[in-house]
């Protein structure tokens, strides 16, 4: 059923813009047939490519176990597919395009497609950082637009959790005030349908919010997001020279550098967000994609994940807030579905605090670690999502026990050392003890030095929004 609904939703979305978008026969012939043909490489593209489910499926069912009742569901999600952000990412791609545009010879090899009527997808800088939608791309038929991902996520969420949603048809969704994050939350809300009356609370990303934010890293004045350079400087980057050398051999005088080669990976990913495919992606071998992916894992592990000592501290803010709600009796809650939208870095900090995907030894730059289950692009791809289920289960003697279970990008993720409950869940009492012990000694305000930028000391927006509405102005 959900497949039919999504197909109809996609057709309806496309139909609404077809009249406003000029699409010629070359577009239909050349672009449509390629859409989605590069899904197999999304898992190597640093989380910048379209959404895909966690690629190692343990076949565990999402369904709530028999004799159990779902009583809370929490969704902590990244925005959908987007344009490259202004600054280093967009500038890097544009620098390569400028070099290609000034090449006066015929392109050969994997760049031969540039001899045709190729249209550069990043020429409008006003789109940088925005969610990809039918209104700002040349290919409205791409099913991997950020707008479509937000809508599909909502439809899937409703199919899975309709009963608990319908218990409270008037409920709140929280979003940061980033334009792409906010837009995703709007597409999500709209897709749930008219039966729900959703109160959207928009939380500022400004550092002055301190911990009362969906982006608490911004208020962490002591956070050093460049620790990975101590490791990436030791990583073998000859794969970039291989790419540039191959392109230069095919196109004498082009002078592609290793930096250009690195930026081509971003071009590949973000063009997929817009068109559903990218001819640039065909430049790379599978070995080069793997090496690029692991470089991204190193960057992330030491800048945003457990390799950074303050990542867990920052992530403790949403982790402790969620724990507080999980331990609140449902009859004291105004709603039982808690939905929040933010960015990739904030999800990584959250995962660091939870301890998911952190059982492995620290990543090394000396070689590719084939044993780790930490892969940036598997965890925080565009549209990434973490669901936390709380369900109550009755035993044979009639007593009821609460359990917690995580679903990461459509795959059940049992907790190491605490998965003996129904559906490989963790008893809420044990999870509470585990998280309190894991975060023992963690003090966001003190360790982050947040008083340098904020006088706020706690996350309160899940509770005080009725008396203190959040309506921060949007920014890119």
Automatic annotation (TrEMBL):
InterPro entries: His_Pase_clade-2, His_PPase_superfam, Histidine_acid_Pase_euk. Its EC number is 3.1.3.2. Residues 1-20 form the signal peptide. It is an enzyme of class 3 (hydrolase). It catalyses: a phosphate monoester + H2O = an alcohol + phosphate. The keyword Repeat does not apply. The active site is at residues 79, 344. Keywords: Disulfide bond, Glycoprotein, Hydrolase, Signal. Disulfide bonds join 68-393, 268-281, 418-426. GO terms for molecular function: acid phosphatase activity. Pfam families: His_Phos_2. It comes from the Eukaryota. One of its GO terms (cellular component) is fungal-type cell wall. This is acid phosphatase. The lineage of its organism: Eukaryota, Fungi, Dikarya, Ascomycota, Saccharomycotina.
